[in-house]
Design brief:
Distance between the termini: 36 Å
Largest sheet: 9 strands, mixed
Helix content: 40-55%
Order of helices and strands: EEHEHEHEHEHEHEHHEHHHHHHHHH
Shape: globular
Structural class: alpha/beta
Radius of gyration: 22 Å
């Protein structure tokens, strides 16, 4: 059984009188900073000069400084910029880390795979909320919290876990529950989930099922509703009550198909491929490929993004969403520059600078 911490397990005094530098003010950064401040802590926001988030952070009432200046006198530095920017940001922070300081991250990637090499005298911890920042903030203001993962990578002071728990308490996570894990487990399971089911797997299943129906002569609009639009209905049922509640809620015909056809789609070959994906994540192969891609300007990522935005499934979806005026408008530009700009994406898609 997992070790789970709650409010009663955290001692807020572990952060009393300490300055917390939140580096980044995107999806995670803005939520952490605001929740920490509302919990009574001294927070300064650190950003790269010229950041588009600078004005927003000032508008929200924070003292905003260049990354190095924000870290200079901070007791806890929360590095919350996107993964691919950690190495660059940490280089500015590193001179001020050392004994008595704590480095905190919300995702284990950069530390686990060596993009960031923390000072040997610094406590290194992780608090990884299991929700986008906007939702984390909304729930906190309601007096609740989102669950999080906690891990200690380096405990020089002997008090790293207490510091992490106090931080989790301050951002509201211990209200819901904080699961103890390791840096390796967090990043390896996170990436596996993203690639195999949450993004990669589900996207390909929807595309393949849509294409199968259209190629067989069915109307694209009907195929879209069956293979894409209704996915939300099923996922919501699972989210609220698990697979059993979903199966209870759908027709007997649908439940029968779940048991009999599901294993034909996710067969032994697919399961074997999942194990290969996990192996690539664990041995660092995927991390090396992604960092190399990003540092080369991400040409493959951005070319594929532009191509995917023009797929028939996407074109049909844009038309059909006009039939549902209650939906929030979440359209993105259909043309994308070849070189990524390190700027904030619209909520709730991803973390930002």
């Amino acid at each position: 059984m997992a070790t789970v911490y709650y409010d009663k397990d955290a001692d807020p005094r572990a952060l009393r009188g300490k300055t917390i530098a939140v580096i980044g003010y995107g999806s995670q950064g803005h939520a952490h900073a605001q929740n920490l401040r509302d919990s009574g802590h001294d927070v300064v926001v650190g950003l790269q000069g010229g950041s588009k988030s600078w004005a927003k952070a000032e508008e929200d009432g924070f003292s905003v400084r260049e990354t190095a200046d924000a870290a200079r006198n901070a007791d806890v530095v929360a590095l919350l910029v996107p993964d691919q920017h950690h190495r660059e940001a940490y280089a500015k922070i590193a001179p001020f880390m050392g004994k008595g300081r704590t480095l905190l991250v919300a995702h284990a990637f950069s530390v686990h795979f060596g993009e960031v090499k923390p000072d040997a005298q610094t406590d290194v911890v992780m608090i990884a909320p299991k929700a986008p920042g906007h939702r984390m903030r909304e729930v906190f203001k309601e007096g609740k919290g989102v669950p999080a993962l906690l891990a200690v990578y380096q405990d020089v002071s002997g008090k790293a876990e207490q510091t992490a728990l106090a931080y989790a308490h301050a951002v509201g996570a211990t209200r819901a529950g904080v699961i103890k894990t390791t840096f390796a487990e967090e990043v390896e399971t996170d990436w596996f989930g993203e690639q195999v089911i949450l993004c990669g797997g589900i996207s390909e299943l929807m595309k393949a099922s849509f294409d199968t129906l259209v190629d067989a002569g069915y109307q694209p609009e009907v195929a879209y509703f069956e293979c894409v639009n209704e996915m939300k209905l099923i996922v919501d049922l699972i989210y609220e009550g698990g697979l059993s509640y979903m199966r209870y809620s759908v027709s007997d015909t649908a439940e029968y198909g779940d048991y009999t056809v599901g294993p034909r789609i996710i067969d032994a070959r697919v399961r074997a491929e999942m194990k290969k994906v996990l192996s690539d994540i664990r041995d660092g192969t995927h991390a090396k490929k992604w960092i190399a891609e990003y540092r080369n300007g991400a040409p493959n990522l951005y070319a594929q993004r532009a191509k995917e935005q023009e797929q028939p499934l996407e074109q049909v979806g844009r038309r059909l969403r006009q039939m549902m005026p209650w939906l929030p408008r979440r359209e993105v530009p259909t043309r994308t520059a070849a070189r990524p700009e390190p700027a904030r994406k619209p909520e709730p898609v991803a973390a930002a600078d």
